[in-house]
Amino acid sequence: MVGLFDSIKINSLEIKNRILMAPMATGLAGEQKGEVTDKLIKHYADRAEKTGIIITEHNYIEPVGRLHKGQMGIYSDSLTPGLKKLVKAVQDCGTPIGIQISHAGGVASSSLVGQPPVAPSSIPGGKETPRELTESQIEGLVEKFGQAAERALTAGFDLIEIHGAHGFLLNQFFSPITNKRKDNYGGSLKNRIRFPLQVAKRIREIVGNDFPLEYRLGSVDLTPGGITLEDSEVFAKELVWAGINSINVSGGLCGASPPSLSGEGFFIPQAEAIKKAGKAIVIGGGGITTPEFADKVIKEKRVDMVFIGRAFLKDPKWAANAAKKLKKE
After folding, report:
1. What angle do CA 79, 38, 47 make, to 5 degrees?
2. Could you give the domains of the chain?
3. Please, where are the H alpha helices in 175-281?
């Protein structure tokens, strides 16, 4: 029976166990440019022991897509040397590292980015009303995601995760609450997922067939008129066709920790449904704190891997301690 400490492959990448440290914003990058700092490197290296794979916090692909000060950036080649140092520090611990690339879209703030934020539609979603993107601007953003992927390859990351959850730009296009467009990028489900799929396909072209590519899926909005699990089951199949190897299942506009959900593994049911719908490696979690629970959902084949978030913030040695508890030293 396969358990938490059995290995798994995502495309060509062999991972020693099924623990994924989830992307979590630390605010430890450079406040002005988003460069890697020594504190940021230490944060990730401290959590690498016996962790299957670490995924960094969200990296903004262009300045207008920045969410907060201290956020990591991947919008310029000048940031690549720092990213290389981060990669080496984690890989030297025997653990692969992936990078999450993102765009805040309509929840960005003009006070931070110096101009009004952009979004699929000009409706309030964050602190202010964003500008609606034109079709040509959307095409330009596909290329900027691709350029970010090229930098990730140059830096030596083992995996790229595209952030399509938690109310950020790709999620804003997917959700009918934030996408009120009347063109090829709005209305039907097919149109609302067009931009995210274009991003996935472009990145797959850049990284080649063997490189591991992951999508963080905002599977439900938990709001009337929002994304449903049925929508995400369809989307997940299309993501696989677009070249995605693994799907990390979380929340949509409701965020990573919806107040209506509680207990360990509150996104496991959604992940389980996505796993049944497609052929990707599926990662589930949400509030997981104990290795026993994590091991159980793997053994029950509800998900292929688990993501662990806040438990790693509380205990940097969560994975190593989990191995001891489960007697997998």
Report:
1. 105
2. 8-325 (3.20.20.70)
3. 189-192, 194-207, 229-241, 268-277
Q: How far is 292 from 298, CA to CA, in rounded Å?
A: 10
128-149: per-residue pLDDT in tens? 999 999 999 999 999 999 999 9
Q: Say what the pLDDT of residue 329 is.
A: 57
What tokens does 270 get? 């959604």
Tell me, what DSSP letter sits at residue 221? -
Task: Give DSSP secondary structure letters for 40-107.
Answer: HHHHHHTT-TT-SEEEEEEEESSGGG--STT-EE-SSGGGHHHHHHHHHHHHTTT--EEEEEE--GGG
Yes or no: say if 55 and 100 are a contact pair by the CB < 8 Å rule: yes
Number of Cβ within 10 Å of residue 202's Cβ equals 20
CA–CA separation, 123 and 252 (whole Å): 17
Over the stretch 291-316, which tens digit does the pLDDT of each residue have? 999 999 999 999 999 999 999 999 99
Q: What are 140's strand-pairing partners?
A: none
The CA distance from 173 to 165, in Å, is 11
Structure tokens at 93: 């611990």
**40 within 8 A of 8, measured Cβ to Cβ:** no
